[in-house]
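Subject: sequence -> structure tokens, single chain

Hey, anyone have a minute? Need the predicted structure for the following. Not urgent.
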Amino acid sequence: MGIDPYSHRRTSATITLRRADGAPLADSAVTISQQRHSIGFGCTAPEADEQLAPWLELFDTATLTFYWGRYEPRPGVTRHTEMLRQAQSLAGRGVRLKGHPLVWHTVKAGWVDRLPLDEAEEMLRARIRREVSDFAGVIDSWDVINEAVIMPRFTNEPDGVRNAITRICERHGRTGMVALAVEEARRPGAATTLVINDFDLGPEYEDLIEDVLAAGIEIDAIGLQSHQHQGFRGEERFDEVNDRFARFGLPLHWTETTLVSGDLMPAHIDDLNDYVVDQWPSTPEGEARQAEEIVRQYRALVAHPAVASITYWGFGDARSWLGAPCGLARADGSLKPAYEALRELVRGEWWYAPTTVRTDHAGRVRVDGFAGDYRIADGSAEATVTLGAGVTAAEAHLLR
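Reply:
Had a minute. Here:
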């Protein structure tokens, strides 16, 4: 038998079950079912009601988009009520939530560009504090700054007005801009995980993280993107990137990953945004390829001990980034083979299916499975217990 590549994800725990009065739940039938994994299996939040059921059958972590230009298209006019309703609905179903992003130079509020620099900076600072404060207790994680590597040299300004976020980053420098974002996000005092996020996985990003940590700036995780519109990058590439960024000692979050189920984008395209076509259909051949590659990708990422979260970017093709057929559902809502393949892995091979067992004389049962949250019920009472990787013993009280 070979070495288990997922041993660092597993728990083999003896759980002592007690009644509400503290007495052991001895010689009783109980049903044990896994509720979610410790590692985050995420996706952008479902955009339509009909997506919710299949979405929940696979994912346990949702990314909600807070692009400033869309969230607050006019000063003081926000989507707060709509976003809070969606966040609370998902959280009520046990979904972990992340907001994306607090600071980004793209899809930003155009009205901020026209402000004097000092005023624009204060608006940015206030926006960060507002979102973290308004959603505290519901959204517990944020991409605090997005794509800071390119931020001070970003020049795509079609309206002719210089990008305010770029100008603020020029003023402070990359490290200073990260410090600004983190400082304001911490100011409300909410318990939140702050992720630095980038598509640039090269030396500049490594240098920035090094500088950020050396300056004592408190980030909680490193975000990595991989939009594979030009083809699957392969297990060796993922391992190499994980190894390089794991040296910082922070959890790695693959915040945006995609694989196309149609023709691949030509290899000579440097900036993915430059590829514009009238139609980019999903094809049977592409869907078969996507299904195979998504399993390979997830196996490689879950096998690496530094990876704490994996987010697939876009559940369906209807509103996919760049119009690419990279979703797990087609534009008509029907599910692709990649969805089924990933579900068989995440909620099949790596999942503890509901199982009925009997406790022993001391109220003990054993669970061997992937680390995560487990529900234990005897028909009249239940308990939820979190079993971390490597945990060997736990206790739970079953309550009505």
